[in-house]
Specification:
Helix content is about 85%, strand content about 0%. It is built from 11 helices and no strands.
């Protein structure tokens, strides 16, 4: 084979991108099938049972309401409030839980001091904190951020601790051989990068927990957000509005989880 034929046979950037698109389309097909089946079963149930639209509207009515709420910007506003609350609490949790978890995973003495507090508070559901959040903070933003903070803190903390504890001793020895002469340098150059895949997993799980917690908090005490949109639809007997809120929650949750899966795969390869 000469050089010219080798160049022609080598995949170029364009060919690589063409191959990537079909692969992405194939991965998306099961979700498309699931959505189609759900809508078909939904329509069949409506046709057979003929329920009142205030209880179970047909898919076309929900699609029209979705388009109406999306068109006038109301859906985007409520979704923006919910996402902003989750991201704020999630970032606060990460800022506190990641350094704390790295310290706990690296120091048995420090872990013995902190772990009893963690194990006492961790089993309490974030939803159980909603009444206390209302008493302490009212129905403002602080109370909802507090509830989400409780829901996101412990998954990040525990994953970070596991990542720091699970560092391969061979990596620690190699770091010492290649110039990490003190514990701080070894911690910064070896422990933190090796624990990163586990930290990303914790961030992903925590975001899902926080997403569920904020919807519950908004259902109880809020004047905005997707949870409020659902609760308001229930109060005025608008099942189509309730279902629009549920669909928005599911779609956004799926998109966020897809993003974190990408980060997990990327940083997992980087760590290896």
């Amino acid at each position: 084979m000469n050089i010219a034929s080798a160049k022609n046979s080598a995949p170029g950037p364009g060919r690589t991108s063409h191959r990537r698109w079909p692969a992405n389309a194939v991965r998306a097909l099961p979700f498309c099938y699931a959505a189609i089946v759900i809508v078909l079963v939904w329509q069949i149930v409506v046709d057979i049972t003929k329920p009142d639209p205030s209880i179970l509207p047909p898919p076309i009515d929900v699609a029209w309401t979705f388009g109406h709420l999306a068109g006038d910007g109301e859906l985007a506003v409520h979704a923006g409030y919910s996402v902003a609350r989750v991201i704020t609490a999630w970032l606060l949790s990460g800022i506190i839980a990641i350094p704390l978890g790295l310290l706990m995973g690296s120091s048995q003495h420090f872990e013995r001091i902190v772990n009893p507090f963690v194990e006492l508070l961790r089993p309490i559901s974030p939803l159980a904190w909603i009444p206390m959040a209302i008493l302490w903070f009212g129905i403002g933003e602080s109370g909802k951020v507090f509830v989400v903070f409780i829901g996101t803190f412990f998954p990040i903390l525990l994953s970070t601790v596991a990542g720091a504890k699970g560092v391969d001793p061979v990596l620690l020895h190699a770091g010492q051989v290649f110039g990490c002469t003190n514990r701080l340098t070894l911690f910064r150059r070896v422990v933190v990068p090796a624990a990163l895949p586990s930290i990303v997993v914790g961030l992903r799980v925590a975001f899902g927990t926080g997403w569920a917690a904020i919807i519950a908090a908004e259902l109880v005490a809020a004047h905005s957000g997707l949870g409020y949109l659902i609760a308001n639809g229930m109060d005025i007997l608008r099942a189509d509005q309730v279902l629009v809120g549920m669909i928005a929650i599911g779609v956004l949750g799926f998109l966020f989880d897809t993003f974190f899966r990408y980060l997990q795969a990327h940083y997992g390869r980087t760590a290896r």
